[in-house]
Amino acid sequence: MNHPATSAPALRVALADDHAVVRAGYRRLLELERDMAVVAEYGDAESAYRALAAEAGEAVDLLVLDLSMPGRSGLELLRRLQQRRPGLRVLVFTMHDGAAMIEQCLRAGAAGFVTKSSAPEVLVEAVRRAARGETALSPDVAAIAAAPPEAPHRSLSSREFDILQQLLAGHGVEEIAHTLRLSAKTVSNYQTQIRQKLGVGSAVELLRYAREHGLAVP
Fold first, then answer.
1. Domains, the chain, ordered by start
2. d(CA 218, CA 216)
3. Of the candidates 144, 135, 157, which has an alpha carbon nearest to the alpha carbon of residue 99?
4. Which of helix, strand or coil describes residue 149?
5. Are the CB atoms for 100 and 151 separated by under 8 Å?
6. Which pLDDT score, from 0 to 100, does residue 217 have?
7. Are 48 and 63 in contact (CB under 8 A)?
8. Predicted confidence (pLDDT) per residue in 102-160, tens digit
């Protein structure tokens, strides 16, 4: 699978995943490629944002991003980086494969979306395609993304969807407010809007809706 030697500089890749063993695994995979170099690793979204949003972060060409990390979610990190560094390519690499999550990530600016159940060569090729400016989807994701949008949760904004994910993970309003640096009142208002859009009246109904529609629960 090794790419032929080339005079062009290696693609500089950063990894953001809270599992060190997982990072080590796909770091080795990517560094087997002669045209790639893993130059940074992050175990949470906040440290990744601080580094990549800073001037030194310009040394990274592409970020391979997991979605479920401590504190801020990968989706929130993706959205913030697209605002601060729109030229940075971000490839989502996650265990989640829900249609709504895929749609939200692509809407937020992801260069691609690959599930962790994919074959190693799929990830390697997706990194190259994303770096070239293409939209890189693993085959399973491409099939899901092609499905017609019908469910009510497709109407959620990126912020609403991010808060929905936090709620489904069992986080309370105060905790979500602290993580996202919003007021508790704002988060509470979002929670009401989410329930109204989904047609649910309680946390139990919200969880039932998520299970019925295959939404990712971190």
1. 11-145 (3.40.50.2300), 152-212 (1.10.10.10)
2. 6
3. 144
4. coil
5. yes
6. 53
7. yes
8. 888 998 999 999 999 888 999 999 999 999 999 999 988 887 776 666 778 877 776 78
